[in-house]
């Protein structure tokens, strides 16, 4: 019994340490630049039952996946970096940018970075994956939605009536998600975000 109790206490303390490390990595303390740029974007959306605000000029780059092009580096140099952070494998930055440029980027899969969003409830910063998660109804399938909205089907879980899509260059992921939700063909469509990354021990 003592051994079981000692193991339980050890596991509890380890989980508390892991939680503390994750909070530090996520930068859960609200930063005025993050909040300001989230409010300036004017773009809010719901994902995973939480409200998020797109962060104006925000970028997430996973160094192991992307090698930024010269033009991307030049743009970063031209735009003053206002804030830097990290979440999981991603390096996060916020630079000066305007809303028109932000929306025009449209989160296409040709980008060498991901956009980021702020969660006012948790003060966390989420990485926007560039995919839309759609739960569709019995009357329509994933291919019908792909053709109807001009989006790209990534993966379909027909037994769950759930599919993942990406938008094309020139399409706005937030507008397409709104159109899907208002079109009456789906149960729900959400922009996919990852706010909490697993922290290795």
Label the structural class: alpha+beta
**Run of helices and strands:** HHEEEHEEHEEHEEHE
Please give the share of residues in helix: 25-40%
Q: Identify the overall geometry.
A: globular
Q: Tally the structural domains.
A: 2
What average pLDDT do the residues reach?
80
Strand content: 25-35%
Extended strand count: 10
Number of helices: 6
Q: What does the largest sheet look like?
A: 7 strands, antiparallel
Radius of gyration: 19 Å
Extract low-pLDDT stretches: 1-30, 70-74, 104-109
Euclidean distance between termini CA atoms? 27 Å
Polypeptide structure, described:
Helix content is 34%, strand content 31%. By secondary structure, the protein is an alpha+beta fold. It has two domains: 32-129, no CATH class; 130-194, Alpha-Beta Plaits. Strands 1, 2, 6, 7, 8, 9 and 10 form a seven-stranded antiparallel sheet that branches. It has a three-stranded antiparallel sheet with strand order 3-5-4, covered by helices on one side. Residues 1-30, 70-74 and 104-109 have low confidence and may be disordered.
């Amino acid at each position: 019994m003592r051994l079981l109790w000692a193991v339980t206490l050890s596991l509890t303390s380890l989980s508390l340490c892991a939680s503390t490390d994750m909070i530090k990595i996520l930068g859960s303390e609200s930063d005025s630049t993050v909040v300001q740029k989230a409010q300036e974007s004017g773009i809010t959306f719901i994902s995973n039952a939480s409200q998020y605000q797109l962060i104006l000029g925000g970028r997430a780059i996973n160094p192991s996946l992307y090698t930024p092009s010269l033009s991307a580096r030049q743009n970063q140099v031209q735009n003053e970096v206002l804030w830097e952070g990290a979440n999981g494998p991603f390096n996060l930055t916020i630079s000066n940018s305007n809303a028109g440029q932000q929306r025009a980027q449209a989160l296409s899969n040709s980008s060498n970075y991901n956009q980021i969003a702020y969660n006012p409830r948790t003060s966390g910063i989420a990485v926007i994956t560039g995919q839309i998660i759609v739960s569709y109804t019995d009357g329509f399938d994933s291919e019908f939605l792909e053709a109807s909205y001009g989006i790209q089907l990534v993966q379909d879980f027909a037994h769950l009536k759930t599919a993942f899509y990406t938008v094309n260059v020139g399409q706005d992921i937030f507008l397409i998600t709104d159109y899907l939700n208002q079109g009456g063909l789906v149960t729900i469509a959400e922009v996919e975000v990852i706010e909490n990354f697993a922290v290795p021990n």
